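Lab notebook, bench 4. The sequencing result for the construct came back, and we need a structural model before the next group meeting so we can plan mutations. Quick request posted to the team channel:

Model the 3D structure of this chain.
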Amino acid sequence: MSIAPCLLLVASLGCGRSGGLEKVIVEGAVSYNGEPVQNGEILFYPTGGAKGPVSGAPVVNGRYRAVAKGGVPVGMQVVKIEAYDTKSSGGGGDMTSGGRVGARVNYLPDKYHRASRLTVEITSESKTITRDFALEK
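Done. Here's the predicted structure in token form:
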């Protein structure tokens, strides 16, 4: 096997840059009223002159890790978080038994998602940084 394809693959993976943007992996904890968010998502929206796409990750058992496409762009980000209660509507059970499966119902106040004013500065201090969010009613 030629080494050229391997070098091309390594070069395309990069080192924290995607499309010329510097990105880092962001991980951490998300809690609401002192309890870990069991099921949700976190999104990072560039703001204040920061460039790049919206980045995000699922929140599972109170933890998240935004790693897709190289992570979150360096710079100021508005953070939007949703936490879900999964409830079935209708007769219960799954679609094959006549019920509707798992409609996601966000239980966090709008101040953490639709009208979020949460911001965080993403820095390039290392390849992976930790940012925790302890949300209160």
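The first strand starts at residue 17 and ends at 18.
Will bring this to the meeting.
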